[in-house]
Write a structure and sequence with these properties.
The chain is of the alpha+beta class and 200 residues long. Helices cover 36% and strands 26% of the residues. The protein has helices at 27-36, 55-62, 80-88, 103-112, 142-151, 159-170, 174-180, 191-197; strands at 11-12, 18-25, 49-51, 72-79, 90-92, 115-123, 129-139, 152-157, 185-186.
């Protein structure tokens, strides 16, 4: 019998050194990033950029790589040390009374932090919400520069894979679609980082 995941658990495709996160962009941004091995113009460093360890949540967001401006899906490998720094430096994007002494404490953390955390419902192959949550990490200010200049170790275009899995789902071939998904497993967090992001 399968055991339901915890309500808020980081799940990702990772190895000893790196973790994969997903982003979806226009063709212009994706082509430039693939050529440079990192994000360059027309990518903007002045906007918050959201990275997502969950492939299925990214598919929900971009509609299997078919939404305008999100028609190219990139699998970005970043250092685990950078990923964990982002989590450690983060603040929840919305006030959660169980995590902060009061709203003022949260507001102070929000102003000081360059990273935002959101826990949104994870999605199934049909994009329906699941009971447990999926991590979204918003990088802003100096965190964007660190991501672009130091953390990224590789970028792969997985648009065709995304669209192929989407077609399998549309054709009702759910077992085949599930087998084609990237292998994601619980990501090991220190107790301190888990506390900062409200994992559990």
């Amino acid at each position: 019998m399968s055991v339901a995941p915890p309500m808020r658990q980081v799940r990702a495709d990772y190895d000893a050194e790196t973790v994969v996160v997903y982003q979806a962009y226009s063709t212009a941004i994706a082509d430039a990033a693939l050529a440079a091995g990192t994000f360059v113009s027309p990518f903007s460093r002045t906007r918050m950029t959201w990275i997502k360890p969950s492939f299925l949540w990214m598919m929900y967001r971009c509609g299997w790589a078919r939404k305008p401006g999100q028609e190219r899906v990139l699998a970005v490998s970043i250092t685990r040390s950078g990923f964990e720094w982002a989590l450690w430096q983060s603040c929840m994007s919305h006030y959660m009374p169980e995590m902060y002494a009061d709203r003022r404490v949260w507001m102070d953390r929000l102003r000081a932090s360059p990273v935002r955390i959101q826990w949104d419902p994870e999605r199934d192959l049909h994009h329906r919400p699941l009971p447990h949550r999926s991590l979204q990490v918003g990088l802003g200010g100096p965190a964007v520069g660190l991501y672009v200049d130091r953390w990224i170790t590789g970028i792969r275009d997985v648009t065709e894979e995304a669209q192929r899995i989407g077609r399998l789902v549309a054709d009702g071939k759910l077992d085949a679609a599930a087998r084609a998904l990237p292998a994601e497993r619980p990501y090991p967090l220190t107790a301190e980082i888990a506390g900062v992001i409200g994992a559990g």
